[in-house]
Amino acid sequence: MKLSFTTLGCPDWDLDTLCKRGREYGFDGVDFRGVQETLDITLMQEFTSGIAQTRRKLADAGLEVCGISSSIRLCVPEKLKENLEEARRTIPVARALGCGRVRVFGSGDPQQQSKQQMAEAGRECMEAILAIDGARRLSWLFETHDEWTKAQDCRLLLERVLDAAFGILWDMGHTSRVGGETPQQTWEAVGPRIGYTHVKDAIRDPDHPRAMKDGWRYVPPGTGQLPLKEAIALLGEKGYDGWIMFEHEKRWHRELEEPEVIFPQFVGWARSLGM
Question: Which of 53, 123, 225, 266 has the fewest CB atoms in 10 Å of its CB?
């Protein structure tokens, strides 16, 4: 398995810094979810007219672009036009960077629609995206997130879109902490469609000042209560040899550790597990 980090974890770093430090800390790749002030990299000069130079910088640093994390929300019908516009921008960027994966969200409004109705809206949107020229050369990976943290729910959309270009991004923290699933239960529901992973750890500590609304707070990988080791071991047993991406959400949670501290810790922990 290969190790990567998300740019959510280093929101103050420019491109040169993330190349330098990603290499220094021993990562194999980087997943782009914004750079500094801009969340959508497809709107940045470095990823449009200057993308050839950007790819050279990353290659010189020994970093692959393992993913582009989009804001596409498949199960929100009123966002169809916006989703397609973002997809059209993302496809040429991903291909120019040699990146084969795009993260998408499910989202949707459970107060207005059933899960089945939301999944049907997601099917319509995903089929429209896959009809765009070049889309099927990428993997569009639906994250276990927001209204879709249970793998059993995710199957509702996966079963409607059987195209090999559509699959699952397994956020191990979400399915365990929010979805209440064991790694084995997640695998049994969606395992063969998993094409990418997000890893972060947390501990239930409702009285801590850094606790989130659900009473959990993020901690360095391997020091929390989430079954990360079990999940990663299960992936290995099932033949997964793809990316393990450390999703340190510093952009959203400024109180978290600085990337200069937590990134090397993550690599050391992951390598201790044989990755």
Answer: 53
